[in-house]
Amino acid sequence: MRRVITTMTLLGLPSVLSAQEQAGDVIASGSDTAWIMTASALVLMMTLPGLGLFYGGLVRAKNFLSVLLQIGAVASIASVLWVAIGYTLAFGEVTNGFLGGLNAIMLAPEGLGAVRDGTAISESTFALFQMTFAVITPALMIGAWPDRARFGWVVGFCALWGLVVYAPVAHWVWGGGWLAQRGVLDFAGGIVVHTTAGISALVIAIMLGRRAGFPGPAMLPHAPSLTMAGAALLWVGWFGFNGGSALAASDGATSAIINTHLGAAVASLVWLTVEKFALGKPTSVGWATGAIAGLATVTPAAGFINPAGAMLLGVLAAVVCYYAIQLVKQRFKVDDSLDVFAVHGVGGMLGSIMLGALLSADLGGSGYADGMSMGSQFAEQALGVAVVALFSGVVTYILAKLVGLVFPMRVSNDEEREGLDITSHGERAWEFD
Predict the structure, then answer these.
(1) Is 419 left (phi over 0), alpha (psi -120 to 50) or beta?
(2) Which of 138, 221, 262, 309 pairs with 212 at a CA distance of 20 to 30 A?
(3) How far apart are CA 30 and CA 39, in angstroms?
(4) Contact, 295 vs 344, CB < 8 A?
């Protein structure tokens, strides 16, 4: 609830009282509900098929279907668990500030029609929208382990990860938990989504070990055209991701969408420029990766800053994330296959910390809450990022080990060599005969 109230206050949206008064207004509540339902569909599109095509095009042909199936299976199990228990852990009654109360198990059917505090939408509409975030966040991690992670382990790990990593962090920041009470801000997921997934992906990539042949000759994407298509779907879907986080069909939502678009546009152009100087040629995969880096970086700030701030974040996203990829893979030899940490993790953390400065009204931001200054907001943002990163990393390591006792994490060398499409699923994405 704090996320809703803070967002409304900073964006100049209707007060909690006026929102509640509008709840009985069929036109007002209907328009907000229609927008959040649309935004929910857009965010689900980001996962199915956007993320699937984006990741699938980047892997080798023999592993294309395995990536799509992992994303699909994770989306399915995450949805079921969110309704059963995840939602109440994240957005149930605030008690100790660490986990939500159990008042909304199975979405507590008797309360679904009630208007959620601080909004003009029902509790069920809010739960639906938040479910799509709970779906895409574990799916993002799949880009860290293509070619070598065992399907059973992936599904089991991601299912539990959503309950023991994602849901608690969502409560801390968006559900009125202890970080929200300190004033930590995250408009649409720089901390809750991208920091948790990015750090966890890095830990798993290290635990799984490198693919056969890494480091060595580049393992080239088998279908950059699919990656371009996936990036385009992600870009458009991100309008629901960030615009929907205003929780109203309002100017605040429009502002968030404009900033989202500009962050991606600038980052993709700067990434192409960096590639031109570093590699001699701009690439389609570079454009797609740059756009996603810009989107991840602007996400925590989208509703709190002006277009100039969004464009600045786009520039920083391209430069910082580009060189983060080089550092992770070339310097430290970590095989984060599709750069989940360097793009999503680094981008999300960068945007979350930079929000401490860009929130300033003098820089065109929506301004600081009472009692907060640039220095204190910056410190709280850094604290939020650091605590969530540490929590995500430690719990991910423990959870991966525990699930590995039931399902081995990695496939055999022979299975990896032949490709997971055939060895794990008995199918081929493409028949070239």
Answers:
(1) left
(2) 138
(3) 14
(4) no
CA 270 to chain centre: 22
Length of the chain: 433
If you search the block for the tokens 């080239």, which residue do you land on? 220
CA gap 6, 13 in Å, rounded: 10
**Residue pointed to by tokens 């055939």:** 422
Nearest to 49 by CA among 288, 237, 285, 294: 237
C-beta pairs of 114-119 under 8 Å, 24+ apart in sequence: 115/20, 115/23, 115/29, 116/1, 116/4, 117/1, 117/4, 117/5, 117/16, 117/20, 118/1, 118/4, 118/5, 118/8, 118/16, 118/19, 118/247, 119/4, 119/19, 119/32, 119/247, 119/248
pLDDT profile of the chain (433 residues), mean per 10? 41 36 46 96 97 98 98 98 98 96 90 86 96 98 97 98 98 98 98 98 98 92 98 98 97 98 98 97 98 98 98 98 97 97 98 98 96 97 98 98 98 97 95 65
Neighbours of 379 (CB within 10 A): 16
Burial 148-178 (b: 16+ CB within 10 A, else e): bbbbebbbbbbbbbbbebbbbbbbbbbbbbe
